[in-house]
Structures are given as structure tokens and as C-alpha cells.
């Protein structure tokens, strides 16, 4: 936009000089030629030298017949400087000065002097525009770098928050496990001993009036023991970290490398969690028993409505426990049937593929 402004200023400057000489049809033709030249040069790429020479040559050719065109020569020089073609610039300056010197229409003073001033102004305007464009480019680059850095910092902060949340979650699970273990080892053992003592006293007492209190005591202690056992199991079940459990399975699997991808942002329900662990164990056992795979990919992810589990390997061995493309029950082994039953219990779907390896694709709806 600034270069357009520079060109408009130079055209107005040339028009002002021309008006001091004479106003007739030749001035209108010179103005049209200057405007057309400026438009063509603006649309011409800097590396299209032949167009540059063609348009500039035509302008100077018309200047021979319409000398007033020379008053717009600062515009030509401006375009030559902007394209940094020193040879064409030098030739253009020589032609301008030569044509102006031999022109009978343009007096050397004062119009010739003002023409030289116009040429100097054209060089100055191009230099300032280049400086401003360079500064604008530098500013835009700085803004882009700043935006990129801001995005990187936001991503880093998000990662740190996620890591902090996971550490808090892991610490919570660890504490739950500790509490469950303490209850089981201490309170559970004390209750067990109390139940045994109560049972022994109930069997050995000869006083019939004490039998009913012992029965009630034995029942209460049994209910307390069941409640403690349920609480311990609930604490332990909630404390299972699915990602850590799967990572341990991957670490213990030495048959071939496993590419493990985990993309869950929320905690999976306990029942789903345990079935997923069992399915992955069964699938990895099948790889060891029935496949010659050299790579296993384990991917668990979620969408808005369901969980997805994909277990695939690049093995080529087909055995009775690996189905072909057909999903008939006869083509499945016991391990795959067990997987199917587990997924069915969770109201999900399981699909087996044996093309280009073996793939287990499971979808489980969120409750």
C-alpha cells in the first residue's frame, strides 16, 4: 500500500510540473501513459526482466513523440530502484537526462531542475519504503514468534498441570492402597480372631441363656467382617491405575516390542477397567502362543460416547485360536470367546480381523 502511495505522489508531482508548461492533449496522453506504466509494472514480477525492458522501452519511445512523458520519469526510476536492477536503472537515467536535454518542450531551468529533484525524491521514497517494509516484516516475524512462544508456553503449562493432576491422582491411589492394606492386616485380623473366639465360646458354653447372645455377637461380627472386606475391596479396586497396570503388562511382555498409546482423559469405571486389563492379558498371551509377530500395537482411547481398545500385531501364523475373516463361533478359540463374553457383558462390540496381521477392535459404551 505504501508503494502505491509513493507512485501516486510521483504522478501528481509530474502532473504539477507539466501544468507549468502547457495543458493540452499531449498532457492527457502523458498522464495515461504514466498511469498505465505504473499499473503494468506493479503487476509485473521482479524476476520478469523481459516485461520490465518492454514496458520501460515503450515508455521512453513514447517520450520521443510526447516529451511531457519525461516529467513522469521519476516514476520509472522509482520502479527501477525498487527492482534493484542497476543496469536498467543506469540506462533509464541516461535516457531521461538525454531526452530532457534535447527536448524543446522541457526547459532546463527551472523544470529540468525540478525533474532532477523528482528523481532524487523517487530514490528517497523507495529507500524509506524498503526500510518500512523491512521493519514491518521484522515486526510481523516478532509477533509470529511471540504467538508461537505463547502457544508453546500454554502447552507446557497444560502438560505441567496434567502431570501435577496425575501425580495427585497417583498419590491418592497409593494412599487408598495403604489404608486398604492397614484395614485388612489389622482390623481384619482382629475381627477374625474375635469371630473364632465367639464361635468357640458358643460351642463350648453349657449355659442355654448365653447361646442367644453369642449367636447375636457372632452374627454382628460376621456382618462387620463382610463390611470390612467389601470396603477393602472397594478401596483396592478404585486404587487400580489402568495406565500403570497396562504399562506393567507391556514391560513384562518380552516376546516382541509393543507400541503402547494411551489416550484417556477421564477415569474408567472399575468394571470396565478390570475387563480391559483381562482382555489385554489374554490378547498378549495369544500373541505368544499363536503368532510369529515382531511388533504389537496397543491403543486405548475414548470419544464422547465410548471407549476404544485396539490390539494388533503383524504376525502371519494362523492357528485354531486365531479366526479368519469369518466371525463364526467355530473359528474362535477359547481366549477369543472369553474376550467376546467380557465385552458383551459391558454391552460393547468386539471385531476380529486377520488381514495383514491380526487385529482386535473393541468398542465399549460409556455408562
TrEMBL record:
Top-level taxon in the UniProt lineage: Bacteria
Alphabetic keyword roster: ATP-binding, Kinase, Membrane, Nucleotide-binding, Phosphoprotein, Transferase, Transmembrane, Transmembrane helix, Two-component regulatory system
Reactions that this protein is recorded to catalyse: ATP + protein L-histidine = ADP + protein N-phospho-L-histidine
Gene3D superfamilies with a match to the protein in the record: 1.20.5.1930, Histidine kinase-like ATPase, C-terminal domain (3.30.565.10)
Name of the top EC class for this enzyme: transferase
Family matches, as SUPFAM superfamilies: ATPase domain of HSP90 chaperone/DNA topoisomerase II/histidine kinase
CC terms in the record's Gene Ontology section: membrane
Domain Histidine kinase: 178-367
Xref: PROSITE patterns: HIS_KIN, PROKAR_LIPOPROTEIN
Xref: InterPro entries: HATPase_C_sf, HATPase_dom, His_kinase_dom, Sensor_HK_TwoCompSys, Sig_transdc_His_kin_sub3_dim/P
EC number annotated for this UniProt entry: 2.7.13.3
Ranges annotated as spanning the membrane: 12-37, 49-73, 85-102, 108-125
GO molecular function, one term: ATP binding
Pfam families referenced in this protein's UniProt entry, alphabetically: HATPase_c, HisKA_3
Alphabetical list of PANTHER family matching this protein: NITRATE/NITRITE SENSOR PROTEIN NARX-RELATED (PTHR24421), NITRATE_NITRITE SENSOR PROTEIN NARQ (PTHR24421:SF10)
Protein name: histidine kinase
Amino acid at each position: 500500500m505504501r508503494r502505491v502511495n509513493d507512485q501516486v505522489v510521483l504522478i501528481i508531482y509530474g502532473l504539477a510540473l507539466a501544468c507549468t508548461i502547457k495543458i493540452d492533449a499531449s498532457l492527457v496522453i502523458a498522464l495515461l501513459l504514466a498511469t498505465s506504466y505504473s499499473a503494468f509494472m506493479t503487476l509485473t514480477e521482479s524476476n520478469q526482466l523481459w516485461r520490465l525492458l518492454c514496458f520501460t522501452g515503450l515508455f521512453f519511445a513514447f517520450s520521443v513523440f510526447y516529451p511531457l512523458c519525461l516529467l513522469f520519469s521519476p516514476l520509472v526510476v522509482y520502479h527501477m530502484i525498487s527492482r534493484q536492477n542497476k543496469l536498467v536503472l543506469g540506462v533509464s537515467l541516461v535516457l531521461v537526462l538525454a531526452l530532457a536535454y534535447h527536448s524543446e518542450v522541457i526547459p532546463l531551468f527551472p523544470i529540468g531542475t525540478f525533474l532532477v529533484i523528482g528523481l532524487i525524491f523517487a530514490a528517497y521514497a523507495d529507500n524509506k519504503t524498503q526500510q518500512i517494509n523491512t521493519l514491518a516484516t521484522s515486526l510481523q516475524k516478532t509477533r509470529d514468534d511471540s504467538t508461537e512462544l505463547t502457544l508453546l508456553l500454554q502447552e507446557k503449562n497444560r502438560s505441567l498441570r496434567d502431570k501435577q493432576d496425575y501425580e495427585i491422582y497417583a498419590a491418592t491411589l497409593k494412599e487408598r492402597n495403604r489404608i486398604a492394606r492397614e484395614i485388612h492386616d489389622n482390623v481384619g485380623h482382629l475381627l477374625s480372631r474375635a469371630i473364632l473366639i465367639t464361635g468357640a465360646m458358643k460351642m463350648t458354653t453349657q449355659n442355654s441363656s448365653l447361646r442367644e447372645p453369642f449367636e447375636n455377637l457372632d452374627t454382628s461380627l460376621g456382618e462387620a467382617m463382610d463390611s470390612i472386606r467389601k470396603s477393602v475391596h472397594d478401596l483396592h479396586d478404585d486404587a487400580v491405575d489402568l495406565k500403570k497396570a497396562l504399562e506393567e503388562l507391556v514391560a513384562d511382555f518380552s516376546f516382541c516390542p509393543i507400541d503402547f498409546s494411551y489416550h484417556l482423559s477421564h477415569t474408567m469405571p472399575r468394571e470396565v477397567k478390570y475387563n480391559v486389563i483381562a482382555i489385554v492379558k489374554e490378547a498378549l498371551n495369544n500373541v505368544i502362543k499363536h503368532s510369529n509377530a515382531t511388533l504389537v500395537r496397543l491403543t486405548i482411547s475414548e470419544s464422547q460416547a465410548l471407549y476404544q481398545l485396539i490390539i494388533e500385531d503383524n504376525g502371519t501364523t494362523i492357528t485354531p485360536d486365531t479366526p479368519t475373516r469369518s466371525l463364526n463361533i467355530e473359528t474362535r478359540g477359547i481366549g477369543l470367546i472369553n474376550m467376546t463374553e467380557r465385552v458383551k457383558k459391558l454391552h460393547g462390540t468386539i471385531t476380529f480381523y486377520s488381514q495383514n496381521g491380526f487385529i482386535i477392535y473393541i468398542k465399549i459404551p460409556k455408562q
